[in-house]
Amino acid sequence: MHIPQAFDVDDSTNIQTFIKNNPFATLTSTIAHKIVATHLPIDCLQDGKYYGHFARNNPQANISPDEEVCIIFSGPHAYISPNMYVSDFNVPTWNYSAVHCYGNIKFIEDETRIWQLFQDIVARHEGEMGWQLPDEKHYKNMLKFIRLFEFEIKSIEAKFKWSQNKDNDDIIAVITKLKTSGFHEAAACMAKANDLSNPR
Amino acid sequence: MHIPQAFDVDDSTNIQTFIKNNPFATLTSTIAHKIVATHLPIDCLQDGKYYGHFARNNPQANISPDEEVCIIFSGPHAYISPNMYVSDFNVPTWNYSAVHCYGNIKFIEDETRIWQLFQDIVARHEGEMGWQLPDEKHYKNMLKFIRLFEFEIKSIEAKFKWSQNKDNDDIIAVITKLKTSGFHEAAACMAKANDLSNPR
User: Fold this and answer.
1) Which of A26, A29, A91 sits opposite B142 (nearest CB)?
2) CA angle (B37, B105, A164) in 5-degree steps
3) DSSP state string for B93-140
4) Does A1 contact B at CB distance below 8 Å?
5) In whole angstroms, what is the distance from residue B17 CA to residue B199 CA?
6) I need a surface site. Which of B35, B94, B107, B116 has the fewest CB within 10 A?
């Protein structure tokens, strides 16, 4: 990913928090030189590892453990009009965060482990008071139709592009206008990326 | 993209409307067998063609016109808990829309045409009363740092996965719960994908 220095993120805690908050990812790989992609949740569980699953009849469910794949995590984004700044001579742009993780897919075949991992994945999304995976035949049969995998990350590129190259007055003006336009998530990302608790 | 029949979309008007409403895309290609991606707006202009631009120092700004790229358009998405249905024996899933467009990048080198196209792109995002691209040297100099391209689409895969394989009572229950949880855009996508003006 092309990442100008102002938008380059290398704080691993910051990146992991972003992934946990935006688990719905795009898993890209190539099949016969053609790029293919699946949209799916990738969950970081309490062991610190990343897990996902394919429908078994998805062609990507046969990815080799040796093949490098790229999983793209995206978050809130917003069009930024030059009218949103207080300064002059700006151009339209788009603000966003994106994390590209390169690594390998390791399918898990042990049924007991698969069942436990699915319980953990469900618990992560549902919370303590939510739906729980029933320990019964109907649900265990459904596992035949999916392939669970661990995603072993080898390298990460992270870009949080939230006008960090602009002056503080511009940043505050854009955040205010994002909020008044209803883009509250984008406004929050922009405030965090610019560390507005410590104004420049 | 793996697309079960219930979620397969081939209506070109429907797909084009989705792209126009969700122009912030992910352009994927390969460089030395590694998948790379840029997040950028792709705009369908009044000529019916699709345009985008790279920073000139983005490695993808040298994509060959013969190389097939995949541009991914994404829209609202939402986690769907089994608790959101009225029926039993459901599992957690994620609902979403995604359009994968395969085609070629044709860079535009004619300065007059580039200037006109940027005016059209700005007008599309800003509307009639918004910011206009000033016809002056400062802005024309900035064009040196970017490469504008037309994206010639050769094939499209479109998946709108909004529980179309469920009964009407379940669909209505999920839409209601998405709305009460604040997922209004996802609720609207789900209502449209299930054509709730003509209940089954």
Assistant:
1) A91
2) 40
3) EEEEEEEEEEEEEEE---HHHHHHHHHHHHHHHH-TTS-----SHHHH
4) yes
5) 23
6) B116
Contact yes or no for A70 and B98 at CB 8 A: no
Q: Which residue of A has its CA nearest to B143?
A: A91
A142 touches chain B (CB under 8 A): yes
d(CA A196, CA A11): 17
> B90: nearest CA in chain A?
A139
Q: What is the pLDDT along chain B (200 residues), one digit of tens a residue?
A: 999 999 999 999 999 999 999 999 999 999 999 999 999 999 999 999 999 999 999 999 999 999 999 999 999 999 999 999 999 999 999 999 999 999 999 999 999 999 999 999 999 999 989 999 998 899 999 889 999 999 999 999 999 999 999 999 999 999 999 999 999 999 999 999 998 854 44
For the beta carbon of residue B48, count every other beta carbon within 10 angstroms.
7
Looking at the complex, does the CB of residue B99 fall below 8 Å from at least one CB of chain A? no
Among B1, B7, B22, B35, the strongest candidate for a mutation testing the A interface, having the largest count of A CBs within 10 A, is B35
Q: Supply the DSSP string of A1-16, one letter for each residue.
A: ----GGGB---HHHHH
Q: How confident is the model at residue A30 (pLDDT cuts 50, 70, 90)?
A: very high
Higher-pLDDT residue of A197 and B196 is: B196
Q: How confident is the model at residue A197 (pLDDT cuts 50, 70, 90)?
A: low
Mean pLDDT over each residue of chain A, to the nearest integer: 95
b/e burial code for range B136-150 (CB count within 10 A of at least 16 → b): eeeeeeeeeebbbbb
B154 — contact with chain A (CB < 8 Å)?
Answer: no
**In the CATH scheme, what is the homologous superfamily, with its name and number, of domain A5-193?**
Electron Transport, Fmn-binding Protein; Chain A (2.30.110.10)
Q: What span, in angstroms and rounded, lies between the C-alpha atoms of A153 and A71?
A: 9
Q: What is the pLDDT of residues A63-74, one digit of tens each?
A: 999 999 999 999
Dig out the tokens for A125 from the structure.
């999304």
